[in-house]
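Appendix B: a complete holo record

For completeness, this appendix reproduces one full record from the ligand-bound portion of the collection. The bound molecule is magnesium ion. The inputs are the chain sequence and the ligand SMILES; the output is the full three-dimensional arrangement of the complex, encoded as C-alpha cells. No fields have been trimmed.
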Amino acid sequence: MNQFRTGKFEKSSLRWPLKSLCPDQAVHSLSDILPATVAESGYKLILLDVDNTLVPWREEVFPEETVAWINEIKAKGIQLCIISNTKHPDRLTRLSEILGVPFVRGKFKPSTEMFKQAMSKYAASPSETLMIGDQIFTDILGANRSGIETIWVRPLHKNEFFGTRYLSRNAEKLVRTGIYSVLEEDDDLPIVPHTGLFQRRVVRQFLKFCIVGGSSFVIDYSIRSGLMKYTTWHGEKMSVALGRSLIDRFPILFSHVTEPAKASFYLAALVAGIIAMANSFYWNRKWTFGIHGQAERSEQIKRFFVLSVCVLILNALVSGTLNNIIPGPRSQLFATLIATGIGAVCNFIGQRLWAFRKVTL
Ligand SMILES: [Mg+2]
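The structure of the chain with magnesium ion bound, as generated:
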C-alpha cells in the first residue's frame, strides 16, 4: 500500500509542510528520465545526489545504466554536478573522477547552501536547474527550499546509513500518504513519455531475456541430445542402458514409458537444465536486468535457484510427458520446444518481479 509509486505530483493543491516535501516527479530509475526531454525542458544544470541515486550506498561501482545515462546527458550539453555532504571526501573524489562529473561538498541537506553554491558555479538560475535524489527530507526538501524542480528516484538499494534507514525512510512513509494524494500516477510506466515501443524498459528486458533464453535453449538441447544419442555405455547407448535400469528399479514410476531410452530422458533433461540455468543467471543478471556488483547477489542466487528449480521441474514434467504423448522421431524436439516456451514465460515473470526485482521500500 505504501510502496514507491511513480508519476507527476500536482503540488499546487498541497499546503505546507507537505508542499515543501513533495517532489515534482517520481521515477523508478535514472534511465526513466529521457535526456532529450530534459534538454527540451530548458534545464542547463542537473544536481545529483550520490548514495542510492547514482551508486549503491558505500559502493564505488556504478550501475551500467547510470553511466550510460550520465553520458547521454553530457552529450546533450547539460551541466552535471554532484552535491554531497559526505564525511568521506576521498570516496566522493573517486566517484566524481570515475563519472567525470564535478562535485560541490558542503553543508548538510536540506540546507540550501550547496544548491546555491552549485547554481552560482554554473551560472544557472533555479528555473534552469533540476535536482535528482532519493531522499525526501534532504534532496527534495533542500531543492524545494532553493526553488529548484525535483525528480525523486527510487533508492538503488535497501542498504543505507542507520539513520536514513530507520528514521528518514519511516518518516518518508508518513509523508507519502499525503503526497500520493496528488500523484498523477504512471501505472508503472516511466514518467517521461517514451517515443517507441522498444524504448520501454520491460520490452527491452524481454527481448534480452529471449536472446539469453535462446542461448540457454541451444545449450540445453545440445546436452540432452549428446546424452541421449552420442553417449555410450559398454557398447550401447547410455540412454538405453540407463532407461532399462530405471524401468527395472522403478516400474511404477515409468509404467507409461514406451521404450527404455525415454525413461532416461527425464534425467538428461535435468542435467541439461542445470547447466542452462547457470547460463541464464549470469547473462540475465548482468545484461537483461543490468545488475552489477556484489549487492544482493547471494539473495538473488537463492531466489533464482528456487524459481529455476520450480521451472525445471515443470519443464521436466511437461517435456517428459509430451515426449511420450507426441508420436514420431521428432517427439523429443517438439516436447523440448513446448516445455521451454512454457518455462520461459514463467521464468521472465518470476525473474522480473521476484528474483531480480528492484528494492521496494
Ligand atoms: Mg541518497
